[in-house]
């Protein structure tokens, strides 16, 4: 009898109850949740059509991640790049002359994203076309001062071409990671170094080209995509003075916020998935960003052979990379393994893709039980509360809303669950009780209005 009571007490003590309140005022309007199409389209385009369609649904449909943003890499031709996967073809032949049949791999998935209604389509460039760079290569070269008009015209022409096709690219990143040329030749990927004093020319020239086509109000420019914030903040004084004193830094570490730093290896487990979910929470809640894109969605960096060792796909290893949410066999061309492998990171990212939609408004959560691993978003008819518990102990959040709401359902990803649909929160007086299992991410759905 004593042992039963003791166990019950321990169980009770391990479930911590905390209280918080959802704000009545919006903190920010969400623009999108997405990811990058570099460089996996080169390989996945060679997969059977049924697999390509399945992948497109996994990424872009609400039954999958439900992404509202997609980044397409416009190629520079791959001149000097040793890895063909990272050397997308370029449309550029010469000034005003283009080969629109180039890069069928990247264009295929760009079209699939557009077909499925992805709202934000970003075209990003790692380098200008080789003929426009200092070394006439797609890597190991620099931006040439005075070539901004030619480069801006190229980018604007490409966007205009696809918008005329009905693919409404609405953002351009003209210099992705401009601090490195990724040289020397032969390089592992495309890259063009753009000195901080040259960057204003790139941005202004692109805007002028868009404006001449009547696109300046329809297509935005992502002016700064430096490799790291530490590099960017040292360079802003040279070209982007408006943001010099607007820095908010976030870092990557364990799911509970400890152990921040860089690491490699492949990890398909819930621990890694929650760590990256923490980064999304940091971006939206701490930094107040309205948009989040993950690099790179699909990866071949498993670090093991899933055909030779089927169990390896479910276990961490130090040989691979944690740079995707979906994986494929690096040896597919020889072993014909066209299987797609889903990690826990896919299921946790689905919470953000499915529920944090463009136009929804983030509401601050305050109180003793609030932390940076939870957020609430509202639409005209719904509230969604995403809450992560990265600890080994279950807890309960007592949440109060600024208006009447009615619980609908909850969705949980944990060690044993993949976006499992469960019962909704339960009412407790004027508040709602939200159970947060250990090592889990849960989304609670509410209708606005009384039950």
TrEMBL record:
Q: Which residues form the Endo-beta-1,6-galactanase-like domain?
A: 25-221
Which keywords belong to this entry? Answer: Hydrolase, Signal
Q: Where is the signal peptide?
A: 1-19
Alphabetized SUPFAM superfamilies for the sequence = (Trans)glycosidases
What Pfam families does the entry give? Glyco_hydr_30_2
Q: Please list the GO terms describing molecular function.
A: hydrolase activity, hydrolyzing O-glycosyl compounds
Under the heading InterPro entries, the entry gives:
6GAL-like, 6GAL/EXGAL, GH, Glyco_hydro_b
Matching entries from PANTHER family are given as: ENDO-BETA-1,6-GALACTANASE, ENDO-BETA-1,6-GALACTANASE-LIKE DOMAIN-CONTAINING PROTEIN
Q: Please identify the protein, giving its name as recorded.
A: Glycoside hydrolase family 5 protein
Query: Source species, please?
Result: Moniliophthora roreri (strain MCA 2997) (Cocoa frosty pod rot fungus)
């Amino acid at each position: 009898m004593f042992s039963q009571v003791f166990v019950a007490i321990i169980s009770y003590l391990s479930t911590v109850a905390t209280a918080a309140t959802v704000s009545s005022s919006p903190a920010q309007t969400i623009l999108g949740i997405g990811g990058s199409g570099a460089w996996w389209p080169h390989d996945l385009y060679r997969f059977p059509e049924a697999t390509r369609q399945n992948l497109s649904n996994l990424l872009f449909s609400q039954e999958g991640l439900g992404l509202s943003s997609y980044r397409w890499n416009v190629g520079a031709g791959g001149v000097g790049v040793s890895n063909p996967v990272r050397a997308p073809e370029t449309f550029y032949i010469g000034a005003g002359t283009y080969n629109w049949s180039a890069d069928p791999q990247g264009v295929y998935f760009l079209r699939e994203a557009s077909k499925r209604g992805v709202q934000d389509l970003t075209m990003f460039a790692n380098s200008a076309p080789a003929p426009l760079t200092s070394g006439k290569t797609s890597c190991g070269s620099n931006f040439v001062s005075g070539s901004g008009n030619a480069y801006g015209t190229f980018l604007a022409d490409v966007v205009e071409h696809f918008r005329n096709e009905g693919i409404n690219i609405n953002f351009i990143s003209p210099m992705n990671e401009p601090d490195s040329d990724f040289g020397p030749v032969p390089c592992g990927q495309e890259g063009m170094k753009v000195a901080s004093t040259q960057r204003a020319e790139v941005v202004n020239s692109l805007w002028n080209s868009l404006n001449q086509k009547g696109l300046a109000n329809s297509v935005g420019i992502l002016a700064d995509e430096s490799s790291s914030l530490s590099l960017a903040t040292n360079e802003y004084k040279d070209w982007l003075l408006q943001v010099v004193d607007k820095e908010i830094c976030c870092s990557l570490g364990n799911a509970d916020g400890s152990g921040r730093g860089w690491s490699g290896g492949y990890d398909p487990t819930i621990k890694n998935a929650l760590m990256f979910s923490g980064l999304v929470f940091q971006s939206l809640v701490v930094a107040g960003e309205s948009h989040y894109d993950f690099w790179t969605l699909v990866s071949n960096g498993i670090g093991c052979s899933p055909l030779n060792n089927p169990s390896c796909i479910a276990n961490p290893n130090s040989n691979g990379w944690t740079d995707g949410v979906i994986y494929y066999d690096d040896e597919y061309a020889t072993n014909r393994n066209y299987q797609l492998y889903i990690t826990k990171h896919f299921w946790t990212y689905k919470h953000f893709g499915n529920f944090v939609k463009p136009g929804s408004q983030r509401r601050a959560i305050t109180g003793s039980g609030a932390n940076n691993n939870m957020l609430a978003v509202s639409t005209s008819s719904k509230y969604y509360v995403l809450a992560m518990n990265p600890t080994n102990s279950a807890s309960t959040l007592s949440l109060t809303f600024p208006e009447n709401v009615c619980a609908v359902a909850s969705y949980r990803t944990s060690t044993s669950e993949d976006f499992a649909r469960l019962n909704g929160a339960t009412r407790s007086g004027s508040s709602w009780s939200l159970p947060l299992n250990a090592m889990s991410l849960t989304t609670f759905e509410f209708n606005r209005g009384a039950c």
